[in-house]
Structures are given as structure tokens and as C-alpha cells.
UniProtKB/TrEMBL annotation, chain A:
One of its GO terms (cellular component) is plasma membrane. This is Carbohydrate ABC transporter permease. Belongs to the binding-protein-dependent transport system permease family. InterPro entries: MetI-like (IPR000515), MetI-like_sf (IPR035906). Its main location: membrane. Signal peptide: none annotated. Residues 75-277 form the ABC transmembrane type-1 domain. It is a multi-pass membrane protein.
UniProtKB/TrEMBL annotation, chain B:
SUPFAM superfamilies: Periplasmic binding protein-like II (SSF53850). Gene3D superfamilies: Periplasmic binding protein-like II. GO terms for biological process: maltodextrin transmembrane transport; maltose transport. Keywords: Signal, Transport. One of its GO terms (cellular component) is ATP-binding cassette (ABC) transporter complex, substrate-binding subunit-containing. The keyword Cytoplasm does not apply. It comes from the Bacteria. Residues 1-26 form the signal peptide. Pfam families: SBP_bac_8. GO terms for molecular function: maltose binding. This is Sugar ABC transporter substrate-binding protein. InterPro entries: SBP.
Length: 292, 431
């Protein structure tokens, strides 16, 4: 009986290792290939050497990446755009969800349903009208001591951030989480003289850590991976995010080692973020019953 | 917890401030598209291609510093694969720059969409390679510095070992000779698939590479008389014959239904004996193989060997407020030394003989002269109609379906139906 149990656990472990390996292989291949010259990448392709850092290994591809693409600038842009989108997204969406969950407002069900209904519309269908729309918006700029107003947000940072702050899925996630927090806590806080914002800030949000972690990751990933939108609204190289950079490598003669090096550079921050938030992320998904 | 929330808000403010300061840094160039004062903006597809971009920037610098410049030109570079999307979005927002570069076959569509205005240049274009001058409805809308040419690359030693004659521009392989060559190369037993036609390619590669083969059979993408229907051209007997032949290359084990991602690299790694590629790969292949590299013309499949014509070209947008300066810059940029500089940087075929004479590789007797001959003798322009982007998409889908095993006549009929419906729904794409 003991032997059967041990065999079962070995079998389960083997299956887990197999799944882990399948998930890890593309990343290992990317990292290893980023250290090899093109000829060796293709030469190793049909053997296990494709996953091993052996042969002519160097950091040449990484050096070449920085020659071809202003990678540091793109990384700074993406970090900034993603961070601002995440932080403002957490603030705005949680406030909205708090109002819908805790406040007694007539018609809030209709509002909540309308917000959820926006999830049905794919972004691609809205993209072109949105380009036209953001190009009509006023832009305020402080020039010395005078405030200048111009028209159009194209080719700016805010056009890459503001349209993506309000997010129906984040509101839904927060709403569902807030519903699980006892309303008696609000009443106790009110007796102590707290107003709505204090309840939000000091009672509800501190208890919504796992939801915040999930919203952070689910907002960060599309912001980091953003490709179509910046392609349409950003013309200046100085304002471009990392994902546009990958296109720089697809010339008539593609340098695959450089592609892999750049892909490694832009993947690492995402992996680090996921590892840092892993526990909260899984907790939140488990407690809200929502799949990402 | 209160502290934590305060920290989050503080981080938010700090991040917003960071973005604000970055925005201030980026604003200098962002305003370039506003084209204020005596500055006009030029968009190019060369981001990530430092050699070509440097050559373009050098021409612009020379023009800007010349006393005769009618405006200062500001260059903004975009990555090639996403360039068209950026232009279409800018057009939708009314934010196109004065000068744009365009992939040749898209010129009629952009002219029809009123993105472009006819060129009025002081340069004589009559001696340019025909494929470097884009015309539509009798007007010239774009002109390029270079073209590229498709060809077959092999190792001379392999051809000799298999007892195959090396094809020449004057005497290309016939369909029967090609079949024989593939059979003999396969018999050498060196490769799983002796031929690599780049079947993993996507997008514009599919019509660029394979529609000349269809044309060599006698078919075409569309009836060129008025460009109102593809019926008979893309689904006639010749087209079906082409489709069956093309699929047959895979069925006989001569080529993979889906090749490797980089056909040239696979050829250089000796994973294939014959590769269908182009002039852009010549220098790399020559560096690797030296004198063993054999560059041969495409196969004559009945109506003479054909290759695709037209590469990247320059045009002036219809909304440009200083089109006189834009035309002046383009005229200046077409000087032979400028064309030669770009062709040298990119390894492409210079648009004029005068420019070719400045480049030993493309001058008479030069190692790349063959590509100039191929371009002049065999290039067929992709159909000069605004419907081309749609036709290209349908043809690309048809090629992939045929390779995947679909019945050729059914697939081609479906493509013709879609193309004809598109032309009709756009009122025949009349100007």
C-alpha cells in the first residue's frame, strides 16, 4: 500500500515536472538563443542543444540590440506608462466599485450592468474611432508662465495611459471582493465618525489586498504588452513603448539572436512582477472564483 | 494599512510626475508632425534598419544644409512591419506628414484614398527602372531609389555533383528542367527537402514571391484590362495548373509545406540545396559561400520567367501645406550619388544606370549586376489598382489553403468571388 502511494506521488511529480518543462521550454529557448549567433541557433534547432547555453556563447546580441533600438528609452517609457496606468487604475476602479458596492444609490444596478456590458466590445472595433476622438481633445501645456491650449492628444504619453485607466473587469473584480467584506465594518466606522472616503481608505481597501494585486497584474500586462494602440497614436520614437521595438528587428534579413535578446529584455520585468505577486494573485483568483 | 495607502498615492503622484517630465523630453520631437514654421516631416519605414536610415538621414542632412533648401526636412522612422498601420491611423486622424515612403504596390490604393498627390519633380524619371516609378491613372505618384529582385540560389558544387546545368538570365530553367533538377538534387540524399520556397512567409511575401510563378504559367491576380474582375485570370485553366504544380512540389517531397522561418539561413546551414530568395540575401550568401554561390533566374514556367517588381518608394501627401518644398526635396534626393548611397547601404538594385555606375557590384560585370538585369527584363508590377491590398490578402489566403491541401479550383474560385465582390462594393475603385 505504501509502495503504491509512493508510486502515485512519483507519477504525480513526473506529470508536474512535464507540465513545468513544457511551460518553461519557450522561455529557456529564448534566453539561451539570445546568447548564440544566428547560424548556431538554426544549427542547434533539431537537437537538445537548442536549450543549452553551449557553443559560441556571448552577449553580442544584447550589445547589438542597443545599437538597433533605443531599448533603454522604450523600457523606461513602458515602465512609466504601465506604472501610472496600474496605480491610477487601482485608484479609479476601486473607487467606482466601492460606490457600486457600498453606497445606496438608485440605479446602481443599471450602471453596473452597463459597465459590464462594455466587456463585450473588443478594443479593435473601437480603436479607429478612438483615434479620431483623442485627436479632438484639448491638450494643456505650461509654457513658461502661460498656459497653452492645443488640440489633439496624438503622440503624447497621456494618450497611452488615460484611455486604459477605467476598466470594467477591474471594477467587477473589486466589486465582487468588496461584496465579501462585511458591511458591519462600515457601520462601525460610521459610528466612529468616518465618512465614505475614510471608510474606503481605512476600512475596505486595506482588506482588499488580494484584489488589488490581481487588478495590478491584470492592468499591468495589457499596458506592458500594448502594441496596436501605440502603433496608431504615437509617431515619435522617444514616446514608443517596448512592444513596438520588437518590429525593429523584422527586416529583410532577420537577426534572430537579436530578436531573442530583445524578447528576453522585455520579458524579464513581467516574470519578476509575476513572481513577486504570485501568492496574492493566486489567493485572489481562488477567493473570487475568477479566471484571469 | 493607512500608511500603505498613502504610499500608493504618493507612488502614483511620483509616477505621474515622472511621465510628465518624460513627456516634456519627448515633446520636442512630438511637435515635429505639427510641421510648424519652415519644417516639413518625412516618414520612413526604416526604424531598426540602421544602414538604410543612416543613408536617408545623410541625404536629408545634405539637403537641409544646402543653401537651396526650401524647407528643413525632419525624419521620423517607423518599423517596417507596422508602418502601413501607422500611416492609415494618421490619415484617419488627418495627421499625415508631408512626405511618406510607400511599398510600391500600395501606391494606387493610397492615391485612390487621396493620401497622395501626383508628383511634380524636376528630375527626369524616364531612365529609371520601370519598377521604381509608381503610376496610377496616368499620373506618377511615387518614385523609389531602388528595387529588389527574386532569384534562385544554389551551391555550384551541388549542381555539378547532381549533373545539373547552371541556369542563366539568357537561358533560365524550363519547367521540365526544374523538375529534373529537383529530382536529381533529392537523389543526392543531402537534404530532406532540396528546395526551399520560403513557404513559412506571410503577408506581402506570398503575392510578391508566388504571383510571378502564376504569371509565368499564364495566369494573373486580376484581369489587367480595367482591373474590374479576377474571373478567368485567377481561376482559369492556367491558374489551376499553377496551383496544382505548386502543391505538387510539396507532394513530391521537393519542398516543405511550411519551411523554416529564415530560408536563407537554412540554405547557408545546408538544410536545403536550392532556395528561392532575393537580391537582399546575396551579400550574406556570398560572404558565406564565396565562389560556390550560384545565383540563377526564376524558372520559365511557360510564359517566360517572371519576378515581382516595385519596392519602397517616396510620395507627397495631398494635405501637405508646403508641397513645393516636398517636391524640391524629392527631386534633390534622386541625384545619382544619393541613389547609389542608399543602394550601397541596403544592398539593393539602384534605380538608374548612372547610380549603378557608381557601385562596382552593380556596374557592368559586377557580381550583383544580374539582379539589375533580372529587374529590367523579368519584373512584373503587381496589379496597379487600388484593389491590390485586398487582392493580395485573398491570394495569400489561397496560397496557404492550396499548400494545406485544399482543392485548387475551389480555393481559386472562392478568392475570385471575394475579389470581385470587393471591387464591386467599392464602385470599381474609380478615381
Amino acid at each position: 500500500m505504501k509502495n503504491v502511494l509512493r508510486l502515485n506521488s512519483i507519477g504525480a511529480m513526473a506529470v508536474r515536472i512535464l507540465f513545468a518543462a513544457v511551460a518553461a521550454f519557450p522561455i529557456v529557448f529564448m534566453l539561451v538563443s539570445s546568447l548564440k549567433p544566428d547560424q548556431q541557433i538554426f544549427g542547434d534547432m533539431s537537437s537538445v542543444a537548442a536549450f543549452l547555453p553551449i557553443g559560441n556563447i556571448s552577449l553580442d546580441n544584447y550589445a547589438a540590440v542597443f545599437d538597433r533600438v533605443p531599448a533603454a528609452r522604450f523600457l523606461i517609457n513602458s515602465v512609466g506608462i504601465s506604472a501610472v496606468t496600474v496605480v491610477l487604475g487601482i485608484f479609479i476602479n476601486s473607487l467606482c466599485a466601492f460606490a457600486l458596492s457600498r453606497m445606496q444609490v438608485r440605479g446602481k444596478r443599471v450602471v453596473f450592468t452597463a459597465i459590464l456590458a462594455t466587456l463585450i466590445v473588443p478594443f479593435q472595433t473601437l480603436a479607429l474611432p478612438l483615434v479620431w476622438w483623442v485627436n479632438q481633445l484639448p491638450y494643456f501645456e505650461l509654457n513658461g508662465f502661460s498656459l497653452e491650449i492645443s488640440k489633439g492628444w496624438l503622440d503624447t504619453y497621456q494618450v497611452q495611459i488615460i484611455p486604459f485607466i477605467a476598466n470594467a473587469f477591474s471594477i467587477y473584480l473589486y466589486h465582487q471582493y468588496f461584496e465579501s467584506i462585511p458591511k458591519e465594518l462600515d457601520e462601525a466606522a460610521r459610528i466612529d465618525g468616518a465618512g465614505w472616503f475614510k471608510i474606503y481608505r481605512q476600512v475596505v481597501m486595506p482588506l482588499a489586498g488580494p484584489a488589488t494585486a490581481t487588478v495590478a497584474i491584470l492592468t499591468f500586462l495589457p499596458a506592458w504588452n500594448s502594441y496596436l494602440w501605440p502603433l496608431m497614436v504615437v509617431q515619435s520614437e522617444e514616446l514608443r513603448p517596448v512592444m513596438i521595438g520588437i518590429q525593429y528587428f523584422f527586416q529583410l534579413n532577420v537577426s534572430w539572436g537579436e530578436v531573442m535578446a530583445y524578447a528576453s529584455l522585455i520579458t524579464v520585468p513581467v516574470v519578476v512582477l509575476f513572481i513577486a505577486f504570485q501568492r496574492s494573485f493566486i489567493n485572489s483568483i481562488a477567493s473570487s472564483g475568477v479566471k484571469g | 494599512m493607512n500608511k500603505r495607502f498613502t504610499r500608493i498615492l504618493a507612488t502614483s503622484i511620483a509616477a505621474a510626475a515622472l511621465m510628465g517630465s518624460l513627456a516634456a523630453c519627448g515633446k520636442g520631437s512630438a511637435s515635429a508632425t505639427s510641421e510648424g514654421g519652415n519644417e516639413i516631416t518625412m516618414w520612413t519605414h526604416n526604424a531598426g534598419n540602421p544602414d538604410e536610415l543612416a543613408a536617408i538621414n545623410s541625404i536629408v542632412d545634405k539637403y537641409n544644409k544646402s543653401g537651396a533648401a526650401k524647407a528643413q526636412i525632419k525624419v521620423q522612422a517607423f518599423p517596417q512591419d507596422s508602418y502601413n498601420d501607422s500611416v492609415v491611423s494618421a490619415a484617419a486622424a488627418g495627421k499625415l506628414p508631408c512626405i511618406v515612403d510607400i511599398d510600391g504596390p500600395n501606391v494606387p490604393n493610397w492615391a485612390w484614398a487621396k493620401y497622395l498627390t501626383p508628383l511634380k519633380l524636376s528630375t527626369d524619371l524616364s531612365k529609371n527602372l520601370p519598377s521604381t516609378v509608381a503610376k496610377w491613372e496616368g499620373e506618377t505618384y511615387a518614385v523609389g531609389y531602388y528595387d529588389v529582385a527574386l532569384a534562385l540560389f544554389a551551391r555550384a558544387s551541388d549542381l555539378k555533383a547532381a549533373g545539373i546545368r547552371t541556369a542563366t538570365v539568357e537561358k533560365p530553367w524550363t519547367k521540365e528542367e526544374f523538375q529534373d533538377a529537383l529530382t536529381k538534387l533529392k537523389a543526392l540524399g543531402k537534404w530532406q527537402y532540396p528546395l526551399d520556397m520560403g513557404t513559412a512567409g506571410t503577408g506581402e511575401w506570398l503575392p510578391y514571391a508566388y504571383s510571378p510563378l502564376l504569371q509565368s504559367f499564364g495566369g494573373d491576380l486580376v484581369n489587367r484590362d480595367g482591373f474590374q474582375s479576377a474571373d478567368g485570370a485567377l481561376n482559369g485553366d492556367k491558374a489551376v495548373e499553377w496551383a496544382a504544380w505548386f502543391r505538387g512540389l510539396a507532394d513530391q517531397g521537393f519542398m516543405a509545406k511550411k519551411s523554416g522561418k529564415d530560408s536563407t539561413q537554412d540554405f547557408l546551414n545546408n538544410k536545403s540545396g536550392l532556395v528561392y530568395t532575393g537580391s537582399w540575401a546575396a551579400d550574406k550568401a556570398r560572404t558565406a559561400l564565396g565562389k560556390d554561390l550560384a545565383i540563377m533566374p526564376s524558372v520559365d514556367l511557360g510564359n517566360g520567367p517572371k519576378i515581382g517588381g516595385a519596392s519602397w518608394q517616396w510620395g507627397v501627401t495631398s494635405g501637405c501645406k508646403n508641397s513645393e518644398a516636398a517636391m524640391d526635396y524629392l527631386s534633390y534626393s534622386l541625384k545619382p550619388e544619393n541613389i547609389a548611397a542608399v543602394a550601397k547601404a541596403t544592398g539593393t538594385i539602384p534605380a538608374t544606370d548612372e547610380a549603378a555606375a557608381l557601385l562596382p557590384a552593380f556596374a557592368e560585370g559586377g557580381e550583383n549586376r544580374i539582379f539589375m538585369e533580372l529587374s529590367r527584363q523579368q519584373a512584373v508590377m503587381r496589379p496597379e489598382t487600388p484593389a491590390y491590398p485586398f487582392i493580395a490578402t485573398e491570394y495569400a489566403k489561397a496560397v496557404q489553403d492550396i499548400l494545406a491541401g485544399a482543392e485548387p479550383k475551389t480555393v481559386l474560385d472562392k478568392a475570385v468571388k471575394a475579389i470581385d465582390a470587393n471591387i464591386k462594393s467599392n464602385g470599381g475603385y474609380k478615381n
